Amino acid sequence: MPIFQKILTGVIVGALLLGGGVVWYFFSSAPAQEEAQSTGTFGTGGTRTDTTNAPSAPAQSPQPQTTESSKQKIFRIATGPVAGATFIQTQNPTTTLVRFMRADNGHVQELVLDSPGAIPRAVSNTTIPGVIGAQWADGGESAVVQYLDGGVVKTAYLGFPPSTATSSLNRAVDLRFLPDGITDLVVSPDGERLVYLLSASSGTAGYTASVNGTGVATLFTLPLSEILIEWSAPNTLLAYTKSAAGAPGAAFSINAQSGAVTPLLFAQGLTATAGEEFSHVVYQTVSATRASYTRDIEEGRDVPLSFDPTPEKCIWGKNIPTALYCALPISYVAPNYLDQLHRGTALAADTIVGFNSITGKSILIATPGGESGGSTGAIAELDISPDGKYLLFVTQNDRSLWGVRLGAGQ
To answer: What is the pTM of this model?
Structure first.
């Protein structure tokens, strides 16, 4: 899901150690039915505010670290504050790396997973104070970053030099700036294009461009001022109104080529997310009570869920596109918990649950702080590796970065 606007508005998007074979079986079961370059500091930046308006952890320089030797299911990848992270998988040899950007200075590092003695390798030392979010493109070889500069939301594209053993930091990062005041943006599934939103007199205008911000064209307009987007399927975007308990909400599908807008859902307190095939939408409604459903797009049929995921705290699988991974509160929370989370007035520790949108089955994956490892707390955002063997998450309180082993034999 897009993370920039959620972070700006304060949004925070198990105990059982399950073998990778069980997770694979669960999810794969058949259903019953202008150009500039820089290597230094730019922007005056701003003091980063913690995503729940709680006191933020002091900024610190990256500390040398290694992947934990423990084979617990949950393991620490990096200390915080981390603005965003992604997986990179290489062949010959097959290696899984996590590339991440620090929120305090914008420096980018990467770490090989499950490699004894591995230490983070610097990818970019371009300094960006006050980073509030990062989306990754080109398979992790570039990023679109948002940061605060004197109270103004700035957006920049960073193209990293090719990774080599000796020269990557001696070459300039390709730095390009996008318009100020972008309210939300999302990168296409193939990492080559993006869509971003700007406020307009008629509501919200959506623009499409190459991931580096060139070749801009208007894609769509909506007569609504509070919109979030995600790029779900290769040719389809999901747009929806910001959630507020009891407030009317709407979700739309948008053709990524033509900009044609099709209404999908209307409900109070609506949040939603769609898989890469755009065959199913998981959504939540909030009024006096809270309820979650999956909608079959082709049939227009809604099925209530046996659990209550908040879509903005979920990530769809990549090797199994019907799989959805969500962070859920361990204990009871009020129906308007999402509003409280946005305001920073409530916070609950999370567990990670998997859901199959075809079969309707859910399964407990891991609970940070339990026998699986890690530490108890709220989860801000999730990602999953292309091969489905690892999941990563960022903790809300200190923005530290953690991994979860999902693969067989791990």
So the answer is: 0.81
